[in-house]
Write a sequence for this structure.
């Protein structure tokens, strides 16, 4: 919530208002340079807000992806795989911090695409289940229904 809603919305508002206020000063800038120039237009607190927001965004992203990856890895490989995952993840975070930005974005794009493909295949495979559950809850007036069925957990 913090990085997606608060930090990104604040950054977007500052960018739009700065570009509208000073379009000539923002021309030719993109990415981090554009954000830095936009926050620099806010007297005294702008650079501080940018720094704190960037730190919060980076920290919450690292923690969020770590937790997401760890839970997936435990599901696939079991509880014994937690420590190796954490060690590898920490090493990858360090290596990513010293690589060029273009290389990091390239690797991130490839890895996100490699995660998207099996998810899309699963969505296609489960489309019948999704349609029946949507019909059950949205179109058959069961929105207030409650199920005591346990969610199955696979323990390897």
């Amino acid at each position: 919530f913090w990085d997606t809603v608060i930090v990104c919305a604040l950054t977007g508002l500052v960018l739009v208002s700065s570009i509208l206020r000073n379009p000539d000063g923002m021309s030719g800038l993109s990415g981090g340079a554009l954000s830095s120039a936009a926050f620099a237009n806010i007297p005294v607190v702008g650079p501080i807000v940018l720094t704190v927001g960037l730190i919060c965004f980076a920290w919450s992203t690292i923690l969020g992806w770590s937790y997401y990856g760890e839970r997936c890895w435990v599901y696939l490989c079991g509880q014994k795989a937690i420590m190796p995952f954490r060690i590898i993840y920490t090493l990858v975070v360090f290596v990513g911090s010293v690589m060029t930005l273009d290389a990091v974005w390239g690797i991130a794009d490839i890895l996100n695409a490699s995660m998207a493909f099996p998810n899309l295949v699963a969505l296609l495979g489960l489309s019948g289940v999704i349609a029946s559950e949507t019909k059950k809850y949205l179109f058959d007036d069961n929105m207030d229904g409650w199920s005591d069925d346990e969610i199955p957990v696979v323990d390897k």
Summary: The two ends are 31 Å apart (CA to CA). DSSP finds seven helices and no strands in the chain.
